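Narrative of activities, Objective 1.

The group set out to show that a structural description can be obtained from nothing but a protein's sequence at a throughput compatible with the screening campaign. Below is one input-output pair from the validation batch, recorded exactly as produced.
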Amino acid sequence: MNRPTLPEEIPQYIADGLNRQDSDALHAIAAYAEELAEYQEAKVKAELEEDEEIVREESYEDPDRPDDVPGKACVTIKEINDNKYYYYQWRDGSRIKSKYKAPVSPSE
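Output recorded for this entry:
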């Protein structure tokens, strides 16, 4: 059996520590890493649901959408210092990106 190839996403310092573990510890580490990944994904999802309200708009081309904002982006409302702002928001791989659009109330 050949030694597994280290994925690029895993830093060498973590691989060095893993290489010093026995098979029982590696199985425990793998199970923990899977649970930790699920926890972090659920935490991010919960934070997004708490902090932001998705504004459902009619499906049409937004003439104000900047060129660097993809068409799949939705409009969200973020509250900062008691002021509400519209932001474009979209997923880029595993990351969520956003870009300022406008204040919710024109006077803000």
